[in-house]
Amino acid sequence: MHRPYTIIVSEVTVDGKLTLRKGFSSKEIMKFMDEEATRYLHQIRAKVDGIMVGAETIRTDNPYLTVRHVVGKNPIRIIPTKSANIPLDANILKKDAPTIIITTERAPKDKIEQLKEKAEVIICGEEEIDLIKMMSILYDKGIKSLMVEGGSTLNWNLLKTGLVDEIRIIHMPFIVGGVDTPTLVGGEGFKSLEDVVKLKLRAHFIRGSHLITEWEIKFEG
Fold first, then answer.
1. Local structure of residue 48 (DSSP, 8 states)
2. Model confidence over 67-111: pLDDT tens digits?
């Protein structure tokens, strides 16, 4: 497919949670990630052409999405948001790395114009973002490898559309619980075992005090 090679990378608790509870920043959990595991995360950032997170992650965590713990280039930051609902003072709009906002025709025109003063804005869809078209556009812009750092809704939308090649998990050694606490993959979920995304374990190792697992997507056919 005419798209970037895409890797989901995430810190996940033993019970699969991304945060302490719904609406909480994942930075609370990341406080417990040691330096070696943090370097592993930033090594991936330094190797890819682009890094993507959802708009909810921007609003909740306000990340920079830059390379800091290793030597390397900053990837292009890519934020899909169908309503362009990104704060104008968000860290991803600072000039330390280029940013692309992917949105739709339904987004408020005045907000699009405000965002254009700080980032590149691409309209890709009417009511919903056309993810396949988005990936093709990114590929044509030179983004041949893409790291996705969530959140759970973005992970689901990419996985259900068949747009992910790998999943790499930094396992956080504790349990959070909670029925509504966000997990690695959200969305409505698959309804049949015939439809689920199948994985193959490629590697597992320890960095600092963290188990890291790397999984390949098993595409059919």
1. S
2. 999 999 999 999 999 999 999 999 999 999 999 999 999 999 999
Joined tokens for residue 75: 């990837």
**Helix spans in the chain (H):** 27-30, 35-47, 55-61, 109-116, 131-140, 152-160
For residues 219 and 165, give the distance between their C-alpha atoms in angstroms, rounded to a whole number.
Answer: 9
Contact 73/65 with Cβ under 8 angstroms?
no
**Separation between Cα atoms, residue 150 and residue 154, nearest integer Å:** 6
Report the SS3 class of residue 122: strand
User: For 11-27, what is each residue's pLDDT tens digit?
Assistant: 999 999 999 888 888 88
Structural domains of the chain, ranges and CATH numbers in brackets: 5-217 (3.40.430.10)
Q: What is the DSSP letter of 171?
A: E
What distance in Å separates the CA atoms of residue 82 and residue 105, rounded to the nearest whole number?
Answer: 8
pTM of the predicted model, to two decimals? Answer: 0.95
Please report the pLDDT score of residue 178 as a whole number. Answer: 94
Whose structure tokens read 């739709």? 104
**Sequence letter at residue 98:** P
Which residue in 192, 119, 199 sits closest to 159, CA to CA?
Answer: 199
CB-CB neighbours of 179 under 10 Å: 6
